[in-house]
Structures are given as structure tokens and as C-alpha cells.
Design goal:
The structure holds two protein chains of two kinds. Chain A is of the alpha+beta class. Chain A has two domains: 1-59; 84-276, no CATH class. In chain A, 43% of the residues lie in helices and 14% in strands. Chain A contains eight helices and five strands; from the N terminus they run ααβαβαααβαββα. The longest helix of chain A is centred in the N-terminal third of the chain and has 57 residues, at 2-58. Chain A starts with a helix and ends in an 8-residue tail after the last helix. Chain B is an alpha+beta fold. Chain B has two domains: 2-51; 80-169, Gyrase A, domain 2, CATH 3.30.1360. Helix content of chain B is 63%, strand content 25%. Chain B contains three helices and four strands, in the order H-H-E-E-H-E-E. Chain B has helices spanning 2-50, 54-94, 125-141; strands spanning 99-107, 111-121, 145-156, 159-169. In chain B, a hairpin with a 2-residue loop joins strand 3 and strand 4. Chain B is elongated and about 110 Å long. Classes of the chains: A alpha+beta, B alpha+beta. At the A-B interface, helix 1, helix 2, helix 7 and strand 4 of A face helix 1, helix 2 and strand 1 of B. Strand 4 (191-199) of chain A pairs antiparallel with strand 1 of chain B, so a sheet runs across the interface.
Chain lengths: 284, 171
């Protein structure tokens, strides 16, 4: 009799627990989950509305001056790119530009667009370049062009392309540094990708791997793929920056500045090698 | 007597019903809360959609981003060539009496990576380290140096080699 009662109570408890589990699993849990999702969604929307309110209060809409600046900026980028009929013409253009700049150097510079052969040059420099071959090849393989900054209208003007160019030279350090500083000043607007310098028996020796962007008439192996919406070239721009709420301020935009290297010791008391005019006393 | 005995038995029969009612009440409460929250969400959505000038703001901000990027791109080649040459000039200014055996500069978009191979002529490693420490402290003090670290390289006779790597600001 007692055992029967116990069994009955056990069955009741089991039945109750089953019912509770059924409610919890089939109704409560999905409802609580949905409640959480709705809470997050509402929170997100409220935050967006609040952020927008804050942003809109401080936002300055563009005026005619700013719109003109935007248009001018796109035109400036287009103008900055040299145009060539065929890709093979670009190394020639850059080479002519560099040779013109290197006129003041004691030894001729070596300009090469292929790492297989560096071309003729001073004997000491040739041997050194051969030793550095692997590192130079590595330099040629790094870094992609900054295609994300080019305006979408660019494709109508031509095909954006980018090539690498190597430069090797030797001479007194101040002359080399002066040349390196001027390397980007020409029409080819060469960007230094890698630069190496080592002291030689007589002079300091250096090689540079540079990158140049240009507009070509026809697509080629050097063409840069510009897919719609592509702009992720690694340039850091803070989308939440308060700077973007205000009209463009030219003080915040780095202007094209062609600066000569300092010719006087700095405030920290550094000795400027360019003052010496030769390598006397220099460890190079 | 019979009535008194039946009351607990009736109560026993009713409690499953109350229990079920309780479970249903919890369910109803949860569903009501969900309905209220869903209504709030719909209202918030409507409010967000009604924001009048969100699109022009986003578009203008994107144009401003592109403007700053374009200006950066225009100035970048000159900025890098100047910074690289100036960095080497400043290294050269602080290197004596040590020997700079190699300098490599790898410009990035925001900074310049550099690697130096420095030779120190000294009889012992201790003496070389002391000389090198003087140079390294000067290097760390150079304007625009973000970070620098060093490791000991190979030794060749009296020449102890130190390898320095670091990053410098791009002006």
C-alpha cells in the first residue's frame, strides 16, 4: 500500500517535471531568446539615433568652397599621374627624370627595372649590387600601390598602372642623401619602397626600390585592378573622427612639400653631415 | 466526517490545475513582454528611418575621407623621401665613434621602419655594450623615434656587431 503511494507520488513529480521541461524548452527559452535579441536590436537603434543626433548637431554641410575643393582634389590627383602610351615607356620616362637629377653626382647612377640584370655602372657598385641581389628582389616584391585614393573618374582617363624601379648609386653621404630627398620630385613621382645604404671602400653605396604610378592608354600586366568600392589600401582613416564633421580644413591636409635637408645642426646638437661636404670624420 | 476527509483530497486534485495555470501565466507574461519590446523596436525603426539627412551626411563624410586620402597620396612620395634621407642624416650625426655598417629604411604608410647594423670596436663585450648603450640612448632621444630595440649580432675579432630595429614617425 505504502509502496503504491510512493510510486504514485513519484509519477506525479515526474509528470510535473516533464510538464515544466516542456514549457521551458518549447516556449520560455525561445521567448527569452527572442526578448534578448529584441533588446539588443532596440539598444542598437537607440544608440544609432543618439549618435546621429550628436553628429547632426555638430555636422557642417559642405558649402560651395568645399565642393570646389573636392573637385580640385580629384583633378590634382589625376594631374599628378604621368600618362604614357605604352607601359614600356614608363621606365624610360622615370630613368630620364632620374638621370637629370643625378647630374651633380660624381659617379653615374644605375637604374634598373628588372632584377635579373642591373645594367652598366661603376665597377665597385656592380659587384655590390650582385651581392645584394636577393634583398633587392625582395624589395621589388613588397607593397601595393595606393589605388584606393584615386577618384572613380580615373578609369575614363586611362588605366592606372604601377611599376617598380631600382636605383643604385655611390658617393659621399651628403650627396647621396640629397639625391634620395629629390628622388620623388620629378614627373614620375617615385615612392621609395625600400632603401639600403652601406659604407664602401671609398664611398657610401645605396640602392633604392621605388614604385611609380601612371596612366596607360591600354590595360596591361602592370594595370592596377580597381574594383568598385575598393579602397582598403591600409590607409588609416578614423570614420568617427570629429574632423569629418567639419568642413575640410587645409591645415589638416598634408600639402605637397618639397623640402631640402637641414644644413644646420639641430636643436639637439646633432651634427649635420651635409655641412661637412665630404665624408671626413664620418664613419661611412 | 466524510466531508472533512474529502477536502484535502479535493485540494490534491486541484493543485495540478493551479500548477498548469501558473506555467501558462509565466508564458503569457513572457509573450506580453516580447510583444511590448517588438512594438518598441518597430517604433525605434520608424524613428531611425525618419532621420532626414543621414544619407547626405554619410556621403559628405565619405567625400571628406577621400579628400584627406588624396592629399596624403599627393604628399606621400616627397614626405617619404625627405623623412628617409633625414633619418639617415640624423643617425649619422649620433653614430661616432661607432661604425654604421648598414642602414635599411622601409617606409610604411604611417611610419618608417628602420634597421641598423652597428659595429663597435672594443676589447671585450662589456666595453662594447657600454659604448653601444651610449649610442642607443642617443638614438632613443632622437625626435620622431617611435620605438627601437636591439639585439647582439656576430662578433668579428674586436668588432662587436649590434642590430637595431625600430620605427620612426613620418612627418
Amino acid at each position: 500500500m505504502k509502496a503504491g503511494k510512493l510510486l504514485g507520488a513519484f509519477l506525479w513529480i515526474l509528470g510535473f517535471l516533464s510538464l515544466l521541461a516542456a514549457f521551458a524548452v518549447l516556449d520560455w527559452y525561445p521567448t527569452v531568446k527572442e526578448l534578448g535579441r529584441l533588446r539588443r536590436e532596440r539598444g542598437d537603434l537607440e544608440r544609432k539615433i543618439k549618435d546621429y543626433g550628436t553628429m547632426a548637431a555638430r555636422f557642417e554641410f559642405p558649402d560651395a568652397g568645399e565642393k570646389a575643393l573636392f573637385a580640385q582634389s580629384d583633378a590634382q590627383v589625376l594631374r599628378a599621374l604621368p600618362g604614357v602610351d605604352v607601359d614600356d615607356a614608363w621606365p624610360g620616362l622615370a630613368r630620364a627624370d632620374l638621370l637629370e637629377r643625378a647630374k651633380g653626382l660624381a659617379d653615374p647612377i644605375v637604374v634598373f627595372s628588372k632584377t635579373a640584370a642591373f645594367g652598366p655602372g661603376p665597377p665597385g657598385l656592380q659587384g655590390w649590387l650582385t651581392l645584394q641581389g636577393q634583398d633587392i628582389r625582395q624589395g621589388f616584391s613588397v607593397a601595393d600601390p595606393l589605388y584606393g585614393v584615386f577618384p572613380p573618374a580615373l578609369t575614363a582617363k586611362g588605366w592606372l598602372a604601377s611599376q617598380r624601379l631600382g636605383i643604385a648609386l655611390q658617393g659621399p653621404l651628403p650627396e647621396l642623401l640629397d639625391f634620395i630627398n629629390h628622388v620623388s620630385w620629378g614627373v614620375a613621382r617615385l615612392e621609395i619602397v625600400r632603401l639600403r645604404m652601406e659604407p664602401g671602400p671609398l664611398f657610401t653605396r645605396a640602392w633604392l626600390v621605388c614604385r611609380g604610378s601612371y596612366l596607360a592608354r591600354e590595360p596591361s600586366a602592370w594595370s592596377v585592378k580597381m574594383e568598385p568600392g575598393d579602397g582598403n589600401e591600409g590607409l588609416l582613416v578614423d570614420a568617427d573622427s570629429p574632423l569629418l564633421l567639419r568642413r575640410v580644413d587645409l591645415l589638416h591636409a598634408p600639402g605637397v612639400e618639397k623640402k631640402e635637408l637641414p644644413s644646420a645642426p639641430s636643436l639637439r646638437g646633432e651634427t649635420a653631415p651635409s655641412l661637412r661636404g665630404d665624408t671626413a670624420g664620418s664613419p661611412w | 466526517m466524510m466531508e472533512q476527509g474529502e477536502r484535502p483530497a479535493r485540494r490534491r486534485r486541484r493543485w495540478p490545475f493551479f500548477l498548469l495555470l501558473f506555467l501558462v501565466a509565466i508564458s503569457l507574461f513572457l509573450h506580453a513582454a516580447k510583444a511590448l519590446r517588438a512594438r518598441d523596436c518597430v517604433q525605434a525603426h520608424k524613428k531611425y528611418k525618419r532621420l532626414p539627412v543621414e544619407k547626405p551626411i554619410k556621403e559628405t563624410m565619405a567625400m571628406r575621407v577621400r579628400f584627406y586620402k588624396a592629399q596624403f597620396c599627393l604628399a606621400y612620395p616627397q614626405s617619404v623621401s625627405y623623412a628617409a634621407a633625414d633619418l639617415i642624416r640624423r643617425f649619422d650625426g649620433i653614430i661616432p665613434p661607432l661604425r654604421l655598417l648598414r642602414v635599411q629604411v622601409d617606409p610604411g604608410l604611417q611610419d618608417l621602419g628602420f634597421a641598423l647594423t652597428v659595429g663597435v670596436d672594443a676589447a671585450s663585450l662589456y666595453a662594447a655594450q657600454r659604448k653601444f648603450a651610449v649610442f642607443f640612448s642617443k638614438l632613443e632621444m632622437l625626435a620622431g623615434i617611435i620605438e627601437a630595440s636591439f639585439s647582439l649580432g656576430e662578433r668579428s675579432g674586436r668588432l662587436h656587431v649590434f642590430l637595431v630595429t625600430g620605427r620612426a614617425e613620418l612627418p
